[in-house]
Amino acid sequence: MVAGADVLSAVLSDLAAEGAWLDAVVAGLDDTGWLQPTPAPDWTIAHQVAHLAWTDDQALRAATDPEAFAALARRMLAGEVTVDGAAAEGAALPPPTLLRQWRAGRAELAAALAAVPAGTRLPWYGPPMSAASMATARLMETWAHGHDVAEALGVPHPATHRLRHVAHLAVRTRDFAFTVHGLTPPPDAFAIRLTAPDGSIWSWGPADAAQSIEGTALEFCLLATQRRHRLDTGLVANGPDADRWLDIAQAFAGPPGAGREPTGTSGAA
Questions:
Q1: Which residues contact 141 (CB under 8 A, 6 or more apart)?
Q2: CATH of the domain spanning 163-248, picked from 1.10.238, 1.10.1740, 3.30.1050, 1.20.120
Q3: CA 1 to CA 164: how far, in whole Å?
Q4: Which of 13, 160, 221, 267 is most buried by its number of CB atoms within 10 A?
Q5: pLDDT digits over 198-252, tens only?
Q6: Residue 35 predicted with pLDDT over 60
Q7: Rounded-to-integer distance, Cα 66 and Cα 122, Å
Q8: HSE toward the beta carbon, residue 174, CA cutoff 13 A
């Protein structure tokens, strides 16, 4: 990866492409299609898109009005606003209205992140992030919720080079995953080797690390976004800490999610 503004530009380009893919999938749905249940309990396709629109709006506040974001964060901590409640509110909108709002919000957020001064840290529900990291987090969420929509509709969800952003975020949030589970993060980095969609190898950490993770990038991303149970992947951990991480990995901020139940189809994509 390149540095500075080039990183942000590259991530924003891939974020736009990920959003465009999901947009094309849902744009032709009729009202009944938007009510199709997804793998997330009690969430329809409308809930999935509404959640993306809502979290895009929160990211926009973080980038343009940190005080407004902090006020909303306080309301969430107080239980006045919930993720499920916000998704339900958005899902109740007429589908054309929801789609227009999501499209407008994506464009506004991309422009706002592109304008964030270098070195600025944006507030969020986990550690503060750079604009590039925020864009990466938005890409991760768009990909993950897009995967739910694809599964609901039975359409292919292409594995592309954009998975590298999701995998990178999962690697970067390793210590956060341990911390939110009340565990002390391991002192040393793991060697992580993932097979990319094009057959190349993506790697993180020292090659001679004492503990390691190996597998496909797709399965690692599905695991870290809690779209697959570990038992339904072929991921291999070497070392007790690496093994534990595969049980608790999460590429998203906030408290640990419940994840998905195992299906007994190891290696399924």
A1: 52, 55, 252
A2: 3.30.1050
A3: 10
A4: 221
A5: 999 999 999 999 999 999 999 999 999 999 999 999 999 999 999 999 999 999 8
A6: yes
A7: 8
A8: 23
